[in-house]
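INPUT
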Amino acid sequence: MTDSIRIRASLENGVTRVQAIIRHPMEAGYGIEEGTGGRRPQHFIRELICRHGEDVVLRCDWSRAVSKNPYLSFSFTGANAGESFSISWKDNQEKSDAATVVIEGPAGS
Amino acid sequence: MRRRGFLHAQSAFLGFALFGKALRALAEWNAKAFDATTEAEALAKFFGGRPIEPSAEINVDVLDLVEDGAFVPVQVTTTLPRPRSITLLAAKNPHPLIAHFELGSRCGAAIATRIKVAEPADIIGVVESGDRLYSARRFVKVIAGGCG
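OUTPUT
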């Protein structure tokens, strides 16, 4: 699963606001598979890590009850525009992905 | 170069020793808590039976009524000092524990996400502040349950 992460990280008044959407089925394992009639296997992100440079600013443990194509928003301080922010995730099937963006400065700067 | 590498390792170790509560990049996913089937069991397994007291300094922001329980926007904010983590539960989901967020020291005291809510129930936010646990809850009515 590559290219699954969309991130916006923008700095304003010293606070970097992060909004991210991750393309992932977040399958709880209750659904019935079309054709076979069997249960769809669980498939969900278990761990997600947000880093400013190398520093972990937020670490998440998720369950099957985070919505499909998860949305996450939070903020952190201490970053400068132009520095890197990254998100990486790993799911219960040992699949993973990571993405890095440059923190945007205030509009017009 | 080798010496520099050693110094880096040393300062990293020192940093870790000084800030023992720095976020671990690796942590064990708590299967017992995430597989628990009641709110009480999930809280007991996740927090090891530690007491949790209600707090007016936590706000669980969720709409009163949501049509699709598969996508329920929720935001937890707190004014408690130095919040270390925010944990989200839906009281009547088949597996109530939904998500746990460990906040680094530079992370703001607000997390927003979208969750699945199986039936009308309280959404619970637990905040760890200092060495203590606090919680707040807010009822959401969902029309179509999302399998949580």
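end of record. DSSP finds no helices and seven strands in chain A.
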